[in-house]
Design brief:
heterodimer; A: 1 helix; 0% strand; B: Rhopdopsin 7-helix transmembrane proteins; 8 helices; globular
Chain lengths: 70, 232
């Protein structure tokens, strides 16, 4: 196998591993995102999850996409 | 609203990032670790710009929100290239610069394509979705790449102390954020406490790199661990 093909294989393995790790880490996530650059305070996530705050009835799917960003 | 804690940590982090550049300049390591210093310089510039936007438009404004997430994506790409430059340093004796350059660009393209594939269903704000997804995915790619580099350091019995310190601190930095994020998601009741720790962890990398540039000379060598020796 050529050197380039080996690099491509390794890169794909790294990508698969990274996405697997991401899935494990963000499991049970409430939609927040991981931010790791600098000490600036993180603003609210652009797409906040919709929480049902009144009553215990099951929440239906959101009928429209969040519209925080204009 | 933001309290004094957030501002103090933010200021401390920015000062430490600037201190890395000063230490690297004083110890003649500015050009040797160019990508690391470019990342730190970019972090300082972005911090100042974020503060400017925050003070003009407010914490919950769209301007700050957009700038924060877009600049974070650019910083993650810069951090990715800084990590790739560490690969070049570690494998310098193997003359593998071209292969590393090809691998770095290929992995960046593959991650971008994967991120696009994830968000392509979004009909609105596709670019913003893509930027955020790419930043997240590239972060985890960086995390895995750092562990691979750790393994390479152990396998190759690398002895350059400063280089080892730079790589190890990057690994700890990535791991701290990932672990903190996972714990936050697992224990929502104490999530605010762990969320408070996040900006504090941001100080770790510049602090550690400051130490590496200031206290560890380029010629310093350590004895490789016997634990890592693989019997043949």
């Amino acid at each position: 196998m050529s050197r380039k093909l080996t690099v491509i294989l390794l890169a794909m393995l790294v990508l698969v591993g990274a996405m697997g790790l991401k899935t494990a880490v963000v499991a049970h996530s409430d939609g927040s995102v991981i931010m790791a650059n600098g000490g600036a305070p993180q603003p609210p996530t652009p797409w906040p999850p919709t929480f049902a705050k009144n009553g215990g009835a099951p929440q239906p799917p959101t009928p429209w996409p969040p519209t925080q960003l204009k | 609203m933001l309290g004094p804690y957030e501002y103090v940590i933010w200021l401390l982090c920015t000062i430490l990032e600037a201190a890395v550049l000063v230490c690297a300049f004083k110890k003649n390591a500015l050009r040797r670790y160019l990508f690391l210093n470019v990342y730190m310089a970019a972090s300082v510039v972005v911090s100042i710009a974020r503060f400017d936007i925050l003070s003009h438009y407010g914490f919950t404004s769209n301007e700050y929100l957009y700038f924060y997430y877009y600049s974070d994506s650019l910083l993650t790409i810069a951090l990715y290239f800084a990590l790739a430059s560490l690969y070049s340093h570690i494998f310098s004796e193997l003359k593998a610069e071209r292969v590393i350059r090809f691998g770095t660009l290929f992995l960046l393209c593959a991650t971008s394509l994967f991120s696009y594939a994830v968000v392509q269903q979004s009909t609105s704000r596709l670019v913003t979705h893509f930027v955020l997804e790419l930043s997240q995915n590239l972060y985890f790619v960086g995390l895995v790449l750092t562990y691979v580099l750790w393994a390479a350091i152990l396998k190759m019995r690398e002895t350059r102390t400063r280089l080892i310190q730079l790589v190890l601190s990057m690994g700890v930095y990535f791991s701290l954020f990932a672990a903190n994020f996972a714990v936050q998601n697992l224990y929502h009741s104490t999530g605010s406490f762990f969320a408070m720790l996040t900006p504090l962890f941001g100080c770790f990398l510049p602090l550690s790199w400051c130490y590496a540039f200031m206290k560890l000379p380029e010629e310093a060598r350590i004895t490789p661990s016997r634990l890592a020796v693989v019997p043949r």
